[in-house]
C-alpha cells in the first residue's frame, strides 16, 4: 500500500474511533443489543480460545522441559510457564485468535449489510446504525477479550500442570504456589490492561472495514480479510507500545 494511502486509511480509522467516542456515551443506549453481542463475541468464542489455551500450556511445558532439565532447573518450569503465559503468550495468542474469528465475522456481517443496503434502510427509518451496529460491537469486543484472556490463561496453566505430571509428579497446591510466587503486580496488571486495547482494536477495525464495504460480494470478502490482517498488525503494534510503556514505568 502506498504511503499516502496508508496515512489516509489511518486517518479514516482514527476519525471512525472519534465518532465512536462521540456517539458511544450519548443516549439512547442499546443495552439489549450490547448484551446480545457480548454473548456472541464472548460465549461463542470460548471453545476455540479454550482449546488454544490448553494446547499452548501443554506444548510450552513439554518444549521447555529438556532445556530446563539440562540446567537442573525442572522445579522452575511452573514459574517460567506462568510468567510466559500471563505476561505475553496468553494475551497475544488469545487476541490473534479473537481477531481471526470475531474481526472477520464483524467485517463480513456489516459488509453484507452495507452492500444489501440494510444500513441505508436503517438510516431512512430513523434508526442510528452507527450506535446500534458499531458501538455495541466495539464495546462487546472491548469487554469480552479480557475475560477470555483470563480464562485462556487459567486453562493454559491447568494444561501445564497436566504436562508436568506426564513425566513427573507435582501437587496442585505446589504448582499454584510456584506460579503465584513468581508473579508480581507488574506482571499481571499491564498484561490484563492491554487486552482492553486489543479488544477495542479488533472491534473497531472489523466494524470500520465492514461499515464502509463496497464492490458487492467481492467487497464483503475483502472486508473480512483485511479486518483480520489489519487487526493482527495493530495488536502487535499495541503490544510493542505496551512493552515500551511498562519498561519506562519500571514494571518489566
What does this protein look like?
With 252 residues, the protein is an all-alpha fold. The chain has nine helices and no strands. The chain has helices at residues 3-24, 31-42, 46-70, 77-115, 118-124, 129-166, 172-181, 185-211, 216-248. The longest helix has 39 residues, at 77-115. It is elongated and about 70 Å long. 37% of the residues are buried.
Major beta sheet, specifics?
none
In percent, how much strand structure appears in the residues? under 5%
Q: What is the typical, i.e. mean, pLDDT?
A: 89
Q: Stretches where pLDDT falls below 50 for ≥5 residues?
A: none
Q: Helix content range of the residues, please? A: over 70%
Radius of gyration: 21 Å
Which word captures the global form? Answer: elongated
SSE sequence, one letter per element: HHHHHHHHH
Query: What is the count of helical runs?
Result: 9
According to DSSP, the number of beta strands is 0
- Span of the ends, CA to CA: 35 Å
Oligomer: single chain
Structural class, please? mainly alpha
Amino acid at each position: 500500500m502506498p504511503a499516502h494511502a496508508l496515512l489516509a486509511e489511518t486517518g479514516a480509522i482514527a476519525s471512525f474511533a472519534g465518532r465512536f467516542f462521540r456517539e458511544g456515551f450519548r443516549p439512547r443506549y442499546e443495552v439489549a443489543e450490547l448484551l446480545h453481542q457480548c454473548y456472541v463475541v464472548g460465549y461463542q468464542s470460548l471453545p476455540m480460545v479454550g482449546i488454544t489455551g490448553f494446547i499452548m500450556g501443554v506444548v510450552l511445558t513439554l518444549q521447555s522441559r529438556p532445556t530446563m532439565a539440562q540446567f537442573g532447573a525442572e522445579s522452575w518450569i511452573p514459574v517460567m510457564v506462568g510468567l510466559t503465559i500471563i505476561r505475553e503468550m496468553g494475551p497475544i495468542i488469545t487476541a490473534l485468535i479473537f481477531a481471526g474469528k470475531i474481526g472477520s465475522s464483524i467485517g463480513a456481517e456489516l459488509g453484507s449489510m452495507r452492500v444489501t443496503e440494510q444500513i441505508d434502510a436503517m438510516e431512512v427509518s430513523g434508526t442510528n446504525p452507527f450506535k446500534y451496529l458499531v458501538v455495541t460491537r466495539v464495546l462487546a469486543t472491548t469487554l469480552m477479550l479480557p475475560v477470555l484472556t483470563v480464562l485462556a490463561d487459567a486453562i493454559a496453566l491447568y494444561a501445564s500442570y497436566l504436562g508436568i505430571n506426564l513425566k513427573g509428579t507435582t501437587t496442585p497446591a505446589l504448582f499454584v504456589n510456584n506460579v503465584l510466587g513468581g508473579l508480581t503486580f507488574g506482571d499481571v496488571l499491564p498484561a490484563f490492561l492491554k487486552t482492553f486495547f486489543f479488544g477495542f482494536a479488533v472491534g473497531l477495525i472489523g466494524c470500520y472495514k465492514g461499515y464502509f464495504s463496497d464492490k458487492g460480494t467481492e467487497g464483503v470478502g475483502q472486508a473480512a480479510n483485511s479486518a483480520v490482517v489489519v487487526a493482527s498488525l495493530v495488536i502487535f503494534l499495541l503490544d510493542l507500545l505496551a512493552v515500551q510503556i511498562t519498561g519506562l514505568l519500571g514494571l518489566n
